[in-house]
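Reopening this ticket.

The earlier resolution said the output was attached, but the attachment link was broken on my side. Pasting everything inline this time so it's all in one place.
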Amino acid sequence: MSKVCEVTGKRPKVGRKYTIRGIAKKKKGIGLKITGKTKRRFIPNIMTKRFWFEEENRFIRLKLSANAIRIINKKGLSTVVREMRKNGAKI
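Inline output:
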């Protein structure tokens, strides 16, 4: 299952995790030193949600991020679906 939001297009991003050791300078130490860098993924909060689409009298199943659910609550489902179809999404 791809982790891409159908409304906002959010997808996993690549970043790094830093391993540090030492005592911070503000605690009278020598400072924090980076001892290792590891690649990691920042994964968006994607969930499958089912909405009742009043205009077509049927349920619509969408893969959405938490941000997209807030957008649907704000704009309304019919507006968001209209914008998605205009951009070429098949719903």
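Reporter confirms the inline version is readable. DSSP finds two helices and four strands in the chain. Residues 13-86 form a domain with the Ribosomal Protein L24e; Chain: T; fold (CATH 2.30.170.40).
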